[in-house]
Design goal:
Strand content of chain C: 35-45%
Chains: A mainly alpha, B mainly beta, C mainly beta
Number of domains of chain C: 2
Strand content of chain A: 5-15%
Largest interface: A-B, 15 and 34 residues
Oligomer: heterotrimer
Order of helices and strands of chain C: HEEEEEEHEEEEEE
CATH class of the largest domain in chain C: Mainly Beta
Distance between the termini of chain A: 71 Å
Shape of chain C: elongated
Largest sheet of chain C: 6 strands, mixed
Structural class of chain A: mainly alpha
CATH superfamily of the largest domain in chain C: PRC-barrel domain
Chain lengths: 45, 195, 144
C-alpha cells in the first residue's frame, strides 16, 4: 500500500473513533427518570 | 369537590442537565436523573453529574428535602451540605433498569397506549409525577403523535409495565398547557368513582 | 454612582498628592450588598486590592487614600478569588432563589459615601441591592 493509503486508513479510524465517542457521550448525558418501587428507608409519608 | 387549581407543570427532560447552584452563587453539579417513588409519584430527589462536556456521574445526590427552589434555569440549594450519598437516595439494586423512559404504558384493561418519551412533573410544595408524555400507539387515534396522559394521585406499584386506569384515555391532552386541567379533572373523576 | 462611571478613576495619595493607581474593578459582597474592595491597576507595588474602609473619599474625579501602604495583596481565599476576577459581578448571570435567570449584570449603582450597593442592573431588570443573597463564581443570587 502506498503512503497515502495509510493516511486515508488512519483518517477513517480517527473518524470512526470520534463518532463513537460522541454517540457514547450523548447516550450517557441523556438523563433518565428512575422509578423506585420501595419507599426510601426512614422516609415519612 | 374543589375545582382543579392551575398547576405548574414541567417536563423531566427540562430538569435533567440543569445546574445545581448554591444560594451563595456557586455551581455544585448538574442534574443527571430524576428519581421518583412509583407509589404516589413523589420525587425523591436527583442523581448528579459533574458539569462539563466529558462529565462523570457523582457518588452524591440531591434529595428533594435539600432543594430550596426549582425553576426554568437552575435548581437552587442552600449549600453543599444538603447532598447525600447516591446509594442512600436510590440503592443501586433498585435503580438499575428502573428508568421509565421508553417503557410501555398499558391501561388496566390491557390496551397498549404507547411508549414513554418524557415524564410530566407538577411543582408545588412537593414535586410529583402527574403524567407521562407518550408517543401514542394505534389505540389512541393520535397514533405516532406525542400526547400527555394523566396519572392518578395514588399510582399502583408496578413492575415491568406502567399501568394506568382505562379512564385516563379520556383525559389525554395534546399540549402541556391544557394538561394541568386534565390531570385535575381525571383525579376528580377517580375520587367520585371511589366514593 | 454607577460602576461604569467610577471605573478608570485615579487613586490619589493625599499625603504625597501623587497618582498611585487606577480603579479597575469592584468586589461586591452580599449581606448587605456592598463594595468591599476595589481592584486596582497601574500599581507600583505587588498588591492590587484596596479595602473600602481604607478609602478616604470616593469623589467625582478621584479616589483618595492616606498612604500607599493600604494597597495590598489578598489576605484570604475570598480575596484571592476576588483578585483572580472569579467574583467579578459585571457580566455575571443573575438567578433568583427559585431558579429563574434574570439576565446578566450590565452595571451596578452604589453609594460612594458608604459603599452600599443600591441597584443591580441587567438588560431587562433593575433589582434593589437588598435582594442580593449571594455572589459566587457561577451567579449572583437574588431573593424573589
Amino acid at each position: 500500500m502506498d503512503w497515502w493509503g495509510w493516511v486515508i486508513l488512519a483518517l477513517v479510524i480517527i473518524a470512526v473513533l470520534v463518532v463513537l465517542a460522541v454517540v457514547v457521550q450523548r447516550r450517557r448525558r441523556r438523563g433518565g427518570v428512575i422509578g423506585l418501587n420501595e419507599p426510601r428507608r426512614g422516609d415519612s409519608r | 369537590m374543589t375545582t382543579p387549581t392551575p398547576m405548574l407543570l414541567l417536563r423531566a427532560s427540562e430538569v435533567t442537565g440543569r445546574p445545581v447552584v448554591t444560594l451563595s452563587g456557586e455551581l455544585v453539579a448538574e442534574i443527571k436523573d430524576v428519581v421518583f417513588e412509583r407509589s404516589g409519584g413523589r420525587i425523591a430527589g436527583f442523581t448528579l453529574r459533574n458539569p462539563g462536556l466529558f462529565s462523570r456521574s457523582r457518588k452524591d445526590s440531591l434529595p428533594w428535602v435539600g432543594v430550596h427552589g426549582i425553576g426554568r434555569d437552575a435548581v437552587m440549594v442552600a449549600d453543599e451540605t444538603v447532598l447525600i450519598a447516591a446509594n442512600e437516595l436510590a440503592p443501586r439494586k433498585q435503580s438499575r433498569d428502573a428508568d421509565v423512559l421508553q417503557d410501555r404504558v398499558l391501561t388496566d384493561n390491557g390496551r397498549d397506549l404507547g411508549r414513554v418519551v418524557d415524564v410530566v412533573l407538577h411543582s408545588g410544595t412537593s414535586l410529583d409525577v402527574v403524567g407521562y408524555e407518550i408517543e401514542a400507539s394505534e389505540a389512541l387515534g393520535t397514533a405516532g403523535r406525542h400526547v400527555f396522559i394523566p396519572l392518578p394521585d395514588t399510582v399502583a406499584v408496578s413492575g415491568e409495565n406502567l399501568i394506568v386506569p382505562a379512564a385516563a384515555t379520556e383525559f389525554v391532552s395534546e399540549d402541556l398547557a391544557g394538561f394541568g386541567a386534565a390531570v385535575g379533572a381525571f383525579r376528580a373523576r377517580l375520587r367520585e368513582g371511589a366514593s | 454612582m454607577l460602576f461604569s462611571q467610577a471605573r478608570k478613576r485615579d487613586v490619589v495619595n493625599t499625603a504625597t498628592a501623587t497618582r498611585v493607581a487606577r480603579v479597575d474593578g469592584f468586589v461586591v459582597l452580599p449581606g448587605p450588598a456592598r463594595v468591599a474592595l476595589l481592584r486596582l491597576g497601574k500599581v507600583s507595588g505587588a498588591g492590587t486590592l484596596l479595602a473600602w474602609e481604607d478609602v478616604r473619599g470616593f469623589g467625582p474625579d478621584a479616589v483618595t487614600v492616606a498612604t500607599d501602604a493600604v494597597i495590598r495583596p489578598p489576605r484570604d481565599g475570598l480575596e484571592q478569588r476576588a483578585e483572580d476576577n472569579d467574583l467579578e459581578i459585571l457580566g455575571k448571570r443573575v438567578l433568583t432563589e427559585r431558579g429563574m435567570e434574570l439576565g446578566s449584570i450590565t452595571d451596578v449603582d452604589f453609594d460612594p459615601e458608604t459603599g452600599a450597593v443600591t441597584t443591580l442592573i441587567t438588560k431587562t431588570e433593575t433589582l434593589a441591592g437588598q435582594r442580593m443573597i449571594g455572589l459566587g463564581g457561577y451567579a449572583v443570587v437574588v431573593s424573589d
